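Preliminary data (for renewal application), LZUJQKHR complex.
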Amino acid sequence: MRLVVVGAGGRMGRMLIRAVAETEGCTLSGAIEREGAPVLGQDAGVLAGLAPLGVAVTDDPLPVFAAAEGVLDFTTPAATTFFAELAAQARIVHVVGTTGMDEADLAKLAAAAHHARIVRSGNMSLGVNLLAGLVRKVSAALGEDFDIEIVEMHHRMKVDAPSGTALLLGEAAAEGRGVALSDTRVSTRDGHTGARRPGDIGFATLRGGTVVGDHSVVFAGAGERLTLSHHAEDRGIFARGAVRAAQWAFDRPPGLYSMADVLGL
Ligand SMILES: NC(=O)C1=CN([C@@H]2O[C@H](COP(=O)(O)OP(=O)(O)OC[C@H]3O[C@@H](n4cnc5c(N)ncnc54)[C@H](OP(=O)(O)O)[C@@H]3O)[C@@H](O)[C@H]2O)C=CC1
Ligand SMILES: O=C(O)C1=N[C@H](C(=O)O)C[C@H](O)C1
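Predicted structure:
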C-alpha cells in the first residue's frame, strides 16, 4: 500500500515514516510538511533516522495524494480538516490521529467520510483500545455509587487538554453508564468548587518532561477504589496502529471508522 505521511517532521511523523518503512506490503510514497518548514527537501528516511528512502519532504500535497493509496495524519486540527478534503477528492484512506478537534472540525471529517475511508482515534494503540472496553464494562457494573475521575500525563510539548485518549476513555465510561459525556464532563476545578456532583466524570491533566502518555481511570467508591491504567512507553505503538488501520481500511466502503473497528473489539 502506497502511504503518505503528513506532518513528517513531527514527533509522530518521524515514527510513522519508520513504521511504514518497516511494514511488509507498505511503501512510503510521500512525506508532507507545512510551507516554510526547515525539513523541506530532506530525504524522509534520513529524517526518521533510517537509510535514505528516495522520498523528499515537500509542501505540495496535491500530486503526492494523487499518487497514493492512503495518508497518515498526526498534525493539527486545522491541517487535518484541510487534508481530509484532499484525501476525499483523491479517494484515498485517511488515518487521523490528530487530537484537540472541536465539533466543527469533526463535522468536516464526517462530511469528508461520505467519499473517503477515514479511521480516526484519539489513541491508535491496542492497549488503550482494550482499556476502553474494560472501562465501559466496569462503569456499567459499578453505576453511580462510584465516582469516575480520569487522570492523564503527557510531555511538556503537548498543546491540547484533556488528551484525546482521556476523552476516548471518558466516552467509554459515559457509554457504560448510559449517559452523554457532554452532560457529565468536568475538565477544570479551581477555587471553591462545591462538593462533587453525583454522576460527574472528572478529568485531571498533568504536563511535564518527556512522558509519552499515561492514563488512569479511577472508580472511587465508599471505602474502596479501583484504578485501570495504561502507560505508553514508545510512540511506535501509535505509529504501528496507524499503519494497521490504513491497511484495514484499504478495501472498506467510504465511512468514518474507529480503532475499535480496526481491532475488531
Ligand atoms: N491518536 C494517537 O494515537 C496519537 C495522537 N497524537 C496526536 O498527534 C498530533 C501530533 O502530535 P506530535 O507528533 O507530538 O506533534 P508535533 O508538533 O511534533 O507534530 C506535528 C507536525 O505537523 C506539522 N504540521 C502542522 N501543520 C501542518 C500542515 N498544514 N501541513 C503539514 N504539516 C503540518 C507540524 O509542523 P510545525 O511544527 O512546523 O508546525 C509538525 O511537524 C497531536 O494532536 C497529538 O495529540 C500523538 C500521538 C498518538
Ligand atoms: O500528544 C501526544 O503525545 C499524544 N496524544 C494522544 C492523546 O491526546 O491522547 C495520544 C497519546 O497519549 C500521545
